[in-house]
Design brief:
The chain is α+β, with helices and mostly antiparallel strands. The chain contains two helices and four strands; from the N terminus they run αββββα.
């Protein structure tokens, strides 16, 4: 683990805030896209269609740094 991650003060239950971070939610990957003034988590729904989630929605649905087996 790097020193930056070790000294992070982020809430571990909240999704990361670093752009291009990948997390898993509902068995599907989501990547954080940074946009001017507003970041969003992009992934696909169960039919493969693009889906955008806020950090709050991702947290409500449950997320992980690792793919569930």
């Amino acid at each position: 683990m790097n020193a930056e991650a070790e000294s992070s003060t982020e809430d571990p239950s909240s999704p990361p805030t670093v752009p291009s971070t990948v997390v898993w939610c509902g068995g599907r990957p989501y990547v954080l896209e940074g946009r001017a003034g507003r970041a969003r988590w992009m992934g696909t729904d169960y039919r493969g269609r693009p889906e955008s989630l806020s950090s709050a929605e991702l947290q409500r649905r449950g997320w992980s740094h690792h793919r569930a087996s």
